C-alpha cells in the first residue's frame, strides 16, 4: 500500500476530526455521559487497577503483569492503561486511545479501495467510510469487539482478495501475524474467527493462479507464523478463554440468550435492531453495490472471482451469527466490518471501470456523506442514565467511609456484593472508590447465582451489599438474571442482622446499600 504525503495528511486530519467528534458525542449522550456500564466498566476498572495498584507503568512491568494476571481482553486492557497513562485518571483517556483503531480502519479502507482506484479516490472513499456508524463506535465504545471485527474482516480480505499481499514468504508471514493478532484482540470470538479465517486461507490458496506448490508453500508459512504467535497466547489465556466461552454457550446460556422468533434472529444484524444501529442505511447501499458489481462483472466477463469469494465469505459470516442464540450489536461487528469492506470493494471495482470520472464520483460520494450523514455515532445512550451520577457519588462515599471504620470481612480486600446489575454497576463503584479512596474492591456479582444459600455465603464475606431499585429490578428481569429473584429475601435477612446498617440512597428511584459495621457473627455460640 503506497500512501503519498498528501493522502496521509488528509487521512490524518480526518481521523483526528472524527475522533474528536465521536469523543464529544460520547461525553454528551454516550458512554461518558453517565457512570460506566457493562462492559466498558470492566475494562476501565481492570486497566486502572493494573496501572495504579499493580505498577504496570512500563512495557516490561506491563508484560509481567499480563503474564501473571492475564486480562480478559489484552489489547483492550492495554488501550485503557495507555489512556490513563497519557491522559490522567479521567475516563475520557481510554476512549481517546481508541484513535488507534480508527486509524487502522482508515488505512484498511484506503488499502481496499487503492487496490482498484487511484490514491486520491481511495482517500476520499476512506473518508466517506468513516461516516458509517460502526466506524464511529470504534472510538465511542470501549469494547474489543469492534476493532477485532475490523481486523478480522481485513484479514479475510487479504487472504481472499488481495492477491499481491502474500506472494513472497515474508509477506506471507506478515499475513499470518495479522490473522493471529485479529484473533487475539477478542479471544472469546475464536469460535468464529479461527474457522472463518481458516476457510479464507484455504479458498484463497485454491484460487491462487500460480503453480500448485507456491500457494501451498505460502499457506504453510502463513499458518505456521500464526500458530507460533498464538501458541504462547493459548498457554497463558487458554484455560480462562475456554471457561468464558463454556459459561456463555453452555452453563449460562439461559442467561445470555436473546429471546425472539426465527425472523427476529435472522433479521437482527440486517434491518433489525443490531443492523440499524451498527450499519444504518449502509446495508441497503452495500448490498446494492455488491449486486451491481456482480451483475456488471458477469456482463463484462471479468474473470477474477476473488471478489466473489469475499462476498460469499461475508454472507457465510452473516448466516453464522444470525443463527446464534445471543444477539448484541457488539457481536455484530464480525459481520458489519466484512460488509463495509465488501461495499468499498464493490464501489471501487465499479469506479475502476470509469478511470477518467472515478475521482469525480469519489468526490461526490465523500461530499454527499459530509452533507447528509452524521459524523459521530454511539451505541450507548448514557444520557438516559444521567440520574445515576448522584447515586454513584453517594454509594462510593459510603463505601470509602465504611472502609475507614470497619476492617475487611473477607480479606485481603473489601468485598462489594451486588444483587442486581443496575442502576449503578459494581465496577463503576469500584472504579470511583479506587480514585477517591485509593483502595481495591473485590466484586461479588450475586445476580448470576441461582440459589439463596450460596448468595448468603458470599454476603458473609462482604462489607457492602447493594440492592437494586425498581428500574434495576426490571432491567435484571429483562436480562434473565436469576439472582435478582431473591432481592426481597436478602433485604429482609440483612435488616434482621444487627451487623448491617441500611442506607437508602437519595434518588427518585432509590437503590439500597447495606454497610457492614461488624464482621463478627452476632449469633454464634460462645466458646
Briefly summarize what is shown:
Keywords: Membrane, Transferase, Transmembrane, Transmembrane helix. The protein is mostly helical. It contains 24 helices and 5 strands.
Number of domains: 2
- What fraction of the residues are assigned to beta strands by DSSP? under 5%
Largest sheet: 5 strands, mixed
Total number of β-strand segments?
5
Radius of gyration: 25 Å
Strand arrangement in the largest pleated sheet: 2-1-3-5-4
Alpha-carbon distance between the two ends: 78 Å
Determine the number of helices (DSSP H or I, runs of at least 4 residues): 24
What string gives the helices and strands in order?
HHHHHHHHHHHHHHHHHHHHEHEHEHHEE
Given as residue ranges, the uncertain stretches (5+ residues, pLDDT < 50) are: 522-527
Mean pLDDT: 93
Report the principal-axis shape: elongated
The chain-level structural class is mainly alpha
Helix content: 55-70%
Notes on the protein architecture:
With about 525 residues, the protein is mainly alpha-helical. The protein has two domains: about 5-145 and about 250-260 and about 270-370, no CATH class; about 385-515, no CATH class. Helices cover about 65% and strands about 5% of the residues. The chain has a five-stranded mixed sheet, with helices on both faces. Strand 1, helix 21 and strand 2 form a beta-alpha-beta unit. It is elongated. The termini are far apart. About 45% of the residues are buried. Residues about 520-525 have low confidence and may be disordered. One of its GO terms (molecular function) is transferase activity. It comes from Martelella mediterranea. This is 4-amino-4-deoxy-L-arabinose transferase-like glycosyltransferase. Keywords: Membrane, Transferase, Transmembrane, Transmembrane helix.
Amino acid at each position: 500500500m503506497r500512501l503519498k504525503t498528501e493522502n496521509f495528511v488528509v487521512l490524518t486530519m480526518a481521523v483526528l476530526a472524527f475522533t474528536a467528534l465521536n469523543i464529544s458525542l460520547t461525553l454528551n449522550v454516550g458512554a461518558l455521559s453517565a457512570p460506566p456500564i457493562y462492559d466498558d466498566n470492566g475494562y476501565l476498572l481492570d486497566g486502572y487497577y493494573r496501572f495504579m495498584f499493580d505498577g504496570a507503568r512500563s512495557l516490561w512491568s506491563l508484560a509481567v503483569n499480563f503474564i501473571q494476571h492475564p486480562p480478559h481482553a489484552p489489547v483492550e486492557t492495554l488501550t485503557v492503561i495507555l489512556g490513563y497513562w497519557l491522559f490522567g485518571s479521567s475516563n475520557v483517556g481510554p476512549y481517546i486511545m481508541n484513535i488507534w483503531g480508527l486509524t487502522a480502519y482508515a488505512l484498511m479502507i484506503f488499502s481496499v479501495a487503492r487496490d482498484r482506484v487511484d490514491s486520491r479516490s481511495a482517500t476520499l472513499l476512506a473518508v466517506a467510510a468513516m461516516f458509517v456508524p460502526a466506524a464511529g463506535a470504534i472510538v465511542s465504545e470501549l469494547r474489543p469487539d469492534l476493532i477485532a471485527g475490523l481486523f478480522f474482516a481485513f484479514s479475510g480480505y487479504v487472504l481472499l482478495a488481495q492477491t499481491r499481499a502474500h506472494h513472497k514468504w515474508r509477506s506471507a508471514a506478515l499475513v499470518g501475524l495479522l490473522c493471529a493478532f485479529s484473533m487475539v484482540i477478542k479471544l472469546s470470538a475464536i469460535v468464529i474467527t479461527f474457522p472463518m479465517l481458516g476457510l479464507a486461507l484455504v479458498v484463497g490458496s485454491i484460487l491462487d493462479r500460480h503453480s500448485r506448490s507456491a500457494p501451498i508453500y505460502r499457506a504453510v508459512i502463513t499458518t505456521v507464523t500464526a500458530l507460533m504467535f498464538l501458541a504462547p497466547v493459548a498457554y497463558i489465556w487458554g484455560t480462562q478463554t475456554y471457561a468464558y466461552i463454556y459459561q456463555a454457550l453452555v452453563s449460562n446460556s439461559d442467561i445470555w440468550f436473546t429471546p425472539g422468533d426465527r425472523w427476529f434472529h435472522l433479521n437482527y444484524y440486517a434491518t433489525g435492531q443490531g443492523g440499524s444501529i451498527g450499519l444504518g442505511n449502509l446495508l441497503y447501499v452495500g448490498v446494492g453495490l455488491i449486486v451491481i458489481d456482480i451483475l456488471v462483472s458477469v456482463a463484462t466477463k471479468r474473470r477474477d472471482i476473488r471478489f466473489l469469494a469475499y462476498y460469499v465469505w461475508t454472507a457465510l459470516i452473516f448466516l453464522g451469527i444470525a443463527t446464534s442464540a445471543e444477539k448484541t450489536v457488539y457481536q455484530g461487528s464480525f459481520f458489519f466490518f466484512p460488509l463495509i469492506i465488501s461495499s468499498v470493494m464493490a464501489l471501487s471495482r465499479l469506479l475502476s471501470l470509469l478511470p477518467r470520472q472515478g475521482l469525480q464520483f469519489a468526490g461526490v460520494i465523500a461530499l454527499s456523506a459530509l452533507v447528509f450523514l452524521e459524523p459521530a455515532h454511539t451505541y450507548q445512550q448514557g444520557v438516559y442514565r444521567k440520574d445515576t451520577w448522584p447515586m454513584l457519588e453517594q454509594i462510593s462515599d459510603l463505601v470509602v467511609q465504611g472502609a475507614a471504620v470497619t476492617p475487611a470481612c473477607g480479606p485481603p480486600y473489601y468485598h462489594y456484593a451486588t444483587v442486581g446489575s443496575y442502576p449503578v454497576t459494581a465496577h463503576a463503584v469500584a472504579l470511583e472508590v479506587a480514585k477517591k479512596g485509593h483502595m481495591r474492591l473485590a466484586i461479588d456479582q450475586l445476580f448470576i447465582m441461582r440459589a439463596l444459600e450460596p448468595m448468603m455465603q458470599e454476603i458473609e464475606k462482604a462489607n457492602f451489599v447493594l440492592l437494586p431499585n425498581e428500574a434495576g429490578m426490571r432491567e435484571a428481569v429483562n436480562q434473565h438474571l436469576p439472582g435478582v429473584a431473591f432481592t426481597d429475601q436478602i433485604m429482609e435477612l440483612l435488616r434482621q442482622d444487627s451487623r448491617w446498617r441500611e442506607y437508602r440512597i437519595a434518588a427518585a428511584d432509590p437503590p439500597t446499600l447495606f454497610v457492614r459495621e461488624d464482621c463478627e457473627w452476632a449469633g454464634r455460640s460462645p466458646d
